[in-house]
Amino acid sequence: MSDSKPITGLILAGGQGRRMGGVDKGLQIFRGKRLVDHVYERLAPQVGGIIINANQNHDAYKSFGVRVVSDAIGNFAGPLAGLHAGLSVSRRPYLASVPCDSPFLPEDLVERLMARLNESGAELAVAKTGDQPHPVFCLARRSVLDHLTNFLKGGGRKIDAWYASLDVVEVDFDDEAGAFSNINTREELANLEDVTTEEGTTEVGTTLETGARAATVAAGAAAAVERLSPPPGDAPARASWSASPARAIAGDALARVVSRDALERILSCMDDYDPNALKVTSAREVIRSFLAPVATNEKVAVRAALGRVLGEDIISTLDVPAHDNSAMDGYALRHADLKNAGDTELRLAGSAFAGRQFAGKLGKRECVRIMTGAVMPKGADTVVIQEIVHTEGDNIRVPAGQKKGQNRRLAGEDLAAGKPVLMAGQPVGPAELGLIASLGLAEVTVRRRLRVAFFSTGDELASVGSELKQGEVYDSNRYTLYGMLSRLGCDIIDMGVVRDDPASLERALKAAAADADAIITSGGVSVGEADFIRELLGKLGEVVFWKIAMKPGRPMAFGKIAHAGNEAHFFGLPGNPVAVMVTFYQFVREALLVLSGRTDDCTLPLLQVPCTSSIKKSPGRTEFQRGLLARGERGRWSVCATGAQGSGVLRSMAEANCFIVLEHERGSVKPGDLVQVQLFHGLV
Ligand code: AMP
Ligand code: MG
Q1: In this structure, are residues 234 and 265 in contact, taking their beta carbons and an 8 Å threshold?
Q2: Cα R_g (the chain), whole angstroms
Q3: 66-81: pLDDT as tens digits
């Protein structure tokens, strides 16, 4: 998608799927993914943004991270209602609509409709093959919205009847006759599923992404589709992992898809991808592009929402404050009564307290004693603080120079009715809890928690509480991981220590992949150890092994693995305890936050301070030294490196309160040089 395109794409998925046995059509699995995935992938490159119209299963459609809207005029009123919903919320000047059951829609649909629309000056362009118009494949100017609203208000529901009342241009797509075939029944779905394409044929579906190895449990049919390699002549797939949500619920059956070659495809598009000397920034970029965030919501009581991610926008139903009220203790008065110069004498007509308002209306040259938070009396527009007022019995004297409206809080100043207060994807902190409560809401819709499974690998690991034998070390990584994951608010599944043997590892990885959204392991990814793990992970999904140009934390594995109809993101961290923490904070933390549904910028801030130590470093890798940030003479902050910086010296993390981040290109640091630091505060 390109923001610069002035066109919103609308996927019409608002039907009941009656002919599909009441199962939502867009969510039916076809060639390894949902129909709506096919449509999204074809439409996205043609438009500037996408909206989906659906009247059920919003969570499943929200997996794209785009806006999902229901019909405004009663559910399941047909495509015109969907078009209306899309036009109502779209902000771009044009809207291109396509149905969710047309996986073969032309790749140049929007471009061709747009060319004719502009040429003809019509209000709407519609695709046509032969004599057959395809009314739901259309491009409308947003200005037709009023006309459509009136048509629907008048009881109109038929799309052809609406077109008849508009200036419409039909656009021939005779060269792409098959592109408009849609899928209405299970039989059609099954028949098209079987079509295998041969090189040179023009049969529909020749550009489908069959390169993906897909494991699918489709609704009803429970059909497993296996495609190991793309048939010759297949066009390269355009889908990216982030745009092909794997966690879709089709009816009551789960559909899980691992795009086996997606990772490699994206890596091959990177300019300077070198798995053996990968820059920290490139590793972050790759990880970010593969994340498929949780899209399922649940309702929780307000307090339980602390630390969670909002699942829906919160729109204010009230003005907060509900009334104009006083910001100070003083006297409420009519500004017009005050003289321009000299004191004004006013008569005290009563008082107003918070929760107990002044019942009357302020007359000429009257004032009311008012307390902070009390509702402004009728007629009063200004509050004068008590400290500058002289009282004499029932009269007060106010000096000149008061500003109209001063010390008055306006109704709706904090939150205005109808306005969005908080957006889906925002984290809920103490301020958000208070805001939600100020609207009187007792429950909040939040994303479900991310499930993260983790285990340590290594034959040398002993569990705490057992006696240490010759050559053993206690497993500390699981404890740091437990701590870091708990702080992120994940549901954690601690799978213990797994021995360095293929059968145990396979068992553990499969169990984790079947159950979790993300899997974190420590150890076993360094050269020498990686071979059988590499093979195993390759069997279960798609995982790449990296040597990252960083210290500590060089070896790391990343990808996705699947088992038993579920798939999970995989992070294989190094074994050294400091490397575990560094790679977690530099790569995994942000990834998990995004996976949890966060849409704000979750990167850790970097602050610049002088360094008092000298640090040796060669350009060509990013270093994360453990530092102690402290206030020195005259209160100035500076950082020094904590002693031993070995990647096995966990004490260096405990002694530090920040990372000193030495950038890729940077050389050694002299005392007094400025360096960047990342605070542990609120993190570790
Ligand atoms: P590896 O990456 O498996 O080669 O491990 C690198 C180093 O980290 C070795 O010295 C391991 O003993 C140590 N190590 C690996 N896993 C753990 C763990 N869970 N707790 C403490 N040390 C570990
Ligand atoms: Mg090991």
Answers
A1: no
A2: 32
A3: 899 998 887 677 899 9
Distance 521 CA to ligand 1 centre (A): 11
Query: What pairs with residue 631 in β-bridges?
Result: 637
- Listing DSSP states for 9-78 in one string gives EEEEE-S--GGGTSS-GGGSEETTEEHHHHHHHHHGGGSSEEEEEESS-HHHHGGGSSEEE--SSSTT--
- Best mutation site among 474, 576, 647 for ligand 1, i.e. most ligand atoms within 8 A of its Cβ? 576
Closest CA to 625 of 547, 548, 551, 549: 551
Which residue has the least CA distance to atom 5 on ligand 1?
A: 575
Instruction: Compute the distance from residue 520 Cα to the ligand 1 centre, in Å.
Output: 14
Q: For the chain, what is the domain count? A: 5
Mean pLDDT for 310-333 is 95
Domain span at 633: 607-679
In the predicted model, is pLDDT for residue 253 greater than 90?
Answer: no
pLDDT tens for residues 10-51? 999 988 777 766 668 888 878 778 899 999 999 999 999 999
Any idea what the CATH number is for the domain that residue 218 is in? 3.90.550.10
272 within a domain of the structure (yes/no): no
78 is a domain residue: yes
How much of the chain, in percent, has pLDDT values that exceed 90? 67
Least confident of 31-45, 363-377, 610-624: 31-45
pTM of the model: 0.63
What is the Å distance from ligand 1's center to 523 Cα?
Answer: 5
Domain endpoint, select from 447, 470, 504: 447
SS3 236: coil
The rounded distance, in Å, linking the Cα atoms of 10 and 146 is 18
